[in-house]
Amino acid sequence: MGRIATAGIVSLWVIPVSILVNRIVPDPYMDEIFHIPQAQRYCNGDFMSWDPMITTQPGLSSFSKWCLGILTLYPLHWFFTFLYYTDISSLTAVLAMYLACLKKKYLFSALLGAMAVVIRQTNIIWMLFVVCSEVIDIVGIFVKRNVG
């Protein structure tokens, strides 16, 4: 199926669900009152302003501007597409970092980890987990070779 046909089919259910969600939750939810105006400023090219009420770095806003078309069709993102959160981009970056580490592509894993931390600072814990799990694997291999 072509991209245009796929976008058309997705639009048939995205648009009605968007309307429904906006009717049920017409007001900004939780911290969206801070994030939405910030994202709008970024989309207008104003990268120098920053709302001090926002505690996350501007990674999600920049990332979403670059990948807006992809994210709307991304299956995991569907469930959160009506709310502006870091959950899906954060999860994607962390899982990609871990996968790159498992494939022994350490530099790429580190870059993905840095991106994950820019999106959400608490991902530093997941970065530490990935590093420690690989260190344990490397030490285990070293011990097996030297003992056995």
Give the strand tally. Answer: 0
Report the average pLDDT across residues: 80
Number of helices: 7
Taking pLDDT < 50 over at least 5 consecutive residues as the criterion, the unreliable ranges are none
Amino-to-carboxy terminus distance: 54 Å
- Approximate helicity band: 55-70%
**Tally of individual domains:** 2
| Rg (C-alpha, Å) | 20 Å
Q: How is the main sheet built? A: none
Spell out the helices and strands N to C: HHHHHHH
Query: Percent of residues in beta strands?
Result: under 5%
The SS-based structural class is mainly alpha
Pathway: Protein modification; protein glycosylation
Main location: endoplasmic reticulum
Family: Belongs to the ALG10 glucosyltransferase family.
Organism: Hibiscus sabdariffa
Name its key features:
single chain, 148 residues, mainly alpha, 2 domains, 7 helices, glycosyltransferase
Word description of this protein:
This protein has 148 residues and is mainly α. It has two domains: 1-74, no CATH class; 86-148. The protein has seven helices and no strands. It has helices spanning 3-24, 32-43, 59-66, 68-73, 87-102, 106-119, 123-147. Helix 5 packs antiparallel against helix 6. The radius of gyration is 20 Å and the shape is elongated. InterPro entries: Alg10. It is a multi-pass membrane protein. It is found in: Endoplasmic reticulum membrane. This is Dol-P-Glc:Glc(2)Man(9)GlcNAc(2)-PP-Dol alpha-1,2-glucosyltransferase. Pathway: Protein modification; protein glycosylation.
